[in-house]
Amino acid sequence: MAKSVKLDAHGEALLRQYRELRPTLEQLEKKAYNQLRQALHEQGIYVTGIEHRLKTEKSLTGKLELKGAKYKSIDDVTDLVGLRVITFYTDEVDKVAAIAKRIFDIDWQESVDKRKLHELHAFGYNSLHYICRLRSGGPRFELQMRTALQHVWSTIEHDTGYKGDVKIPRDYVRQFSRLAGMMELMDDEFSRLRLVLTDYRRQILSMVQNGRLDEVPLSRASFRSFLDLQPFDRLNTRIAAVNQAEIYPVSMMSYLPVLESFGLETLGDVQAFIDENSDDAYQLALSQLAITDLDILSSNTALQYLCLVYVLKHDGGRDGLKSLYDKINGENESNGMLADLMMEQAKTLPFMHKKKN
Amino acid sequence: MLKTTIQEQDGNVVAILEGNLDTAASVEAEKVMSPLCDVEGKDIIIDCTDLEYISSAGLRIFLTILQSAQEKDGHVYIKNINDNVRAIFAITGFSNIFEFV
Lengths: 357, 101
What we know:
The complex is a heterodimer.
Chain A: H1 9-42, E1 49-54, H2 57-67, E2 81-87, H3 90-103, E3 104-106, E4 112-113, E5 128-134, E6 141-147, H4 148-160, H5 170-209, H6 220-228, H7 233-240, E7 246-248, H8 256-261, H9 267-289, E8 296-298, H10 301-313, H11 317-329, H12 334-346, H13 350-354
Parallel strand pairs in A: 2-6, 7-8
Antiparallel strand pairs in A: 1-2, 3-5, 4-5, 5-6
Helix pairs in contact in A: 1-2, 1-3, 5-6, 9-10, 10-11, 11-12
Chain B: E1 2-9, E2 12-21, H1 23-33, E3 44-54, H2 56-71, E4 76-79, H3 83-91, E5 99-100
Parallel strand pairs in B: 2-3, 3-4, 4-5
Antiparallel strand pairs in B: 1-2
Helix pairs in contact in B: 1-2
């Protein structure tokens, strides 16, 4: 059964003001959300979520019952409209805050950085709260900014009733504090790890750009940087010229596991793989495409033919080709047919005979 | 000659292609299949059970449908493709772009 709430005359007056203000608040909720979403997008900040809500009459009634006397008018209730930005990393909370300062007017007297409120000897885990107003004026609203882990903490804290009306025994408070401390540490470590990885990616990129390919281990990040150098363009262009074909751009990242399966360990190995097999890959592509009028090719055509040639030169035979197609296309019955077709096309090509000598 | 039928089946949009999707047939096919680019919230299945041949122009139609579906987080499945058509997808490097069922 719902708990009945009795408001005094002042509380009832505030509730009436809320009802009158509600259409304005609905507009405010939409405008504030859209302005914030747009600004985050323009600054390239990707967050796990932006929540927004208008306080319900039931929720407001509960609040007024507890502390209605502290509000002179409904304008003093600053969280009638609430927005919450949940970020991936701690440093992004500050970035979101900087953006909020730029697009909204902040009421600094009411805003609070709960992250800084904890006693030195205590753990806690809270977020940054700003009380804002649109630059165009209107009622104030609350903007909460927190990391995903802070959000998890707050949600669990709320669910367990940790801050409820029952006094929690000291041992349980201590367990909560330990967990809060651990999560705060995890947040910091995730941020630190991201910095380390960003720095590593920069180093890799620099080595790739300076041509120090032998020093760069083959990985997702390094292969992506390598692809920026368009290492397959020359062969693609050569193959496309067979039928004056258009090259349709597609991702080549799906070939990374194939290159790794060939035992290529550095970008230098990949470059050598390209240099050693390009002419034969061209011959193989030519043998297939010259008898067609196909004038559109995917941008991974060159890489595909390089891989096919590599398998054939390393005595992979029909089974090796099928295994390669399984890796490229996913396991499929027709990969055997494709392997047979390729064996048939390749058998007259010079590299197939050279390898026997 | 190409016959193209578009219908809804089990919450998916299904395009059934019968015959040759060659250059001559591609102009009409592009027109008939253009509503597939507007599909939202449903998967697209291109039933190729009776598709005998596909040209570059046909591949371009498939790619356009795929691109518009991916922009809306949708999927395009190519169903029951025959070996000849499959080989065309493979030699042009498009076989790992589509989902074959």
